[in-house]
């Protein structure tokens, strides 16, 4: 149901066929992805008995914000594919992708401000905007840290967690917090949902890290090039756990294969085998599952409703189930 | 006076010495430029007898927004210098410059939202945020049009004006409109200031277009590489007016020199001579002066105060005086 609302909203915001920017924006936004952030926001609002019509416009704005960050992220990482087709910069070039991301970002703030018209209280919207702005800064901070950790297999789990918390979890956390703000939740519930979103976001990134190492069936249709992490020299969770478990000889091999994996499919294959041998994929899966369970537990602060059940299901879907 | 406030505000917002993003943000924001937009906003607020303390924080946020757009613009244009030193991407690389711009943009919206604490009415701030967001979109639209007009000497003055209005004038217009909103001005004054800002912005771009063709003394210290327009194949006002005035043989020579000017300082020199011969520099100066005068006339809607006099001076300073 939200999918239809969202699609027509994108066409309302970027309507012109003969306009280069509207064209770019529609290409970036549609066909849409899983709409995880809007769905999460709406489920939380429903669970808190908030106003769903008011929340829908904010949810759509969050998706613009998120899409802007994906467009720029693909540009930085040189990822040529997104959702099974050319990414914005691969299709339109660097300059246009940069401008598309900027425009989506700016529009998303205007979208939230305009929710005033849908009857959301102005001071509440200002809180949502301040949160979105600061979250955008956190995401950049996380991406910068990611740059710094590039090719660094010795960075350790703490640095990894700090990076993931800012880069990925911050927006999911802000999404859930926004739901609480819009629904007028009390402070305890607001904090619980904020932490829920953050924990879920960490799980989300860990799941993403694990995708290339799970069986082909699960992976097919993910629509992004699975070698992106390795091509970009990202120290993902399975790799970091492998480092912890490796004997000196294995660690040397791991570093060698990791260095070559950026350019060699063969090295990527061997690296995958080594990770399985070291039990790192299994260990990463266990860590992921622990975050999923931690996230779910935070939902106990919500009243027991069918919407909370749906949130449980969404949370478990982050696991490898 | 604003300079000191602004500098300490930047340090408050981006305080950490050991943080990569704070470091990037401070590099982009300080030492600051002419602070035209904040000064314009504050002068307009003063002229309307509004609250200057409240307006100062909004003015600083506008400068963040503007700086973000400069950082990305330099990246797109490959301009390696800004304010007499390496531009952000020249110093830190593409990825970090992209993230710095995104972070400044996001922070600027949060800055405006946080003005709630300084006592600005929430619904007013939402109007300012919506305006800033939509203006950000307009700027991107203008930059896209600029991309499309690249190397197109036959684009005509209408396309040039449309591009300039979005790329440069939109933010100056929004700046003056924001001042009117913050000061609770009536609709007529608000409209007059909006049009004033737009007209001033067009003059500002025309002045920038003319810089490389004015005498070296005036030009020295502008702190940006004066060949940028020609290197990027931009059809600036003097060039477009030269096209209008050229005989067929001169037009061919103009196109040839324009095509070579991107890579050859000698071609740039000859092109400059040709523009002077065609009277295009003089004609562009006359057009610029007419915009300056139009802009100034819109100030008649303001009460006659010393602040209005200062606005007159600021306006005339856009000319070649």
UniProtKB/TrEMBL annotation, chains A, B:
One of its GO terms (molecular function) is prenyltransferase activity. Its cofactor is Mg(2+). It holds the Pfam family polyprenyl_synt. Keywords: Magnesium, Metal-binding, Transferase. InterPro entries: Isoprenoid_synthase_dom_sf, Polyprenyl_synt, Polyprenyl_synt_CS. The keyword Thylakoid does not apply. Transmembrane segments: none annotated. GO terms for biological process: isoprenoid biosynthetic process. SUPFAM superfamilies: Terpenoid synthases (SSF48576). Belongs to the FPP/GGPP synthase family. This is Polyprenyl synthetase. The lineage of its organism: Bacteria, Bacillati, Actinomycetota, Actinomycetes, Kitasatosporales.
């Amino acid at each position: 149901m939200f999918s239809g609302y969202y699609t027509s909203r994108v066409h309302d915001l970027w309507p012109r066929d003969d306009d280069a920017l509207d064209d770019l924006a529609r290409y970036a936004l549609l066909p849409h992805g899983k709409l995880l952030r809007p769905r999460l926001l709406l489920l939380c609002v429903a669970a808190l008995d908030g106003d769903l019509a008011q929340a829908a416009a904010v949810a759509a704005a969050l998706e613009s914000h998120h899409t802007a960050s994906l467009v720029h992220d693909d540009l930085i990482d040189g990822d040529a594919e997104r959702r099974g087709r050319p990414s914005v910069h691969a299709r339109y070039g660097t300059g246009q992708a940069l401008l598309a991301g900027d425009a989506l970002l700016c529009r998303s703030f205007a979208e939230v401000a305009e929710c005033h018209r849908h009857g959301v209280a102005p001071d509440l919207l200002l809180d949502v905007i301040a949160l979105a702005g600061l979250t955008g800064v956190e995401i950049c901070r996380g991406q910068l840290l990611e740059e710094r950790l590039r090719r660094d297999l010795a960075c350790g789990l703490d640095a990894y967690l700090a990076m993931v918390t800012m880069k990925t979890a911050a927006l999911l956390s802000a999404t859930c917090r926004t739901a609480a703000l819009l629904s007028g939740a009390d402070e305890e519930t607001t904090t619980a949902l904020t932490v829920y979103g953050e924990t879920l976001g960490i799980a989300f990134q860990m799941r993403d890290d694990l995708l290339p190492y799970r069986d082909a069936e699960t992976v097919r249709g993910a629509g992004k090039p699975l070698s992106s992490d390795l091509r970009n020299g990202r120290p993902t969770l399975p790799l970091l756990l492998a480092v912890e478990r490796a004997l000196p000889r294995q660690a040397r091999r791991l570093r060698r294969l990791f260095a070559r994996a950026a350019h060699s499919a063969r090295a990527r294959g061997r690296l995958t085998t080594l990770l399985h041998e070291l039990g790192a994929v299994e260990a990463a899966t266990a860590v992921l599952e622990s975050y999923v369970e931690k996230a779910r537990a935070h939902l106990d602060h919500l009243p027991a409703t069918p919407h909370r059940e749906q949130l449980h299901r969404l949370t478990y879907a982050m696991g490898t189930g």
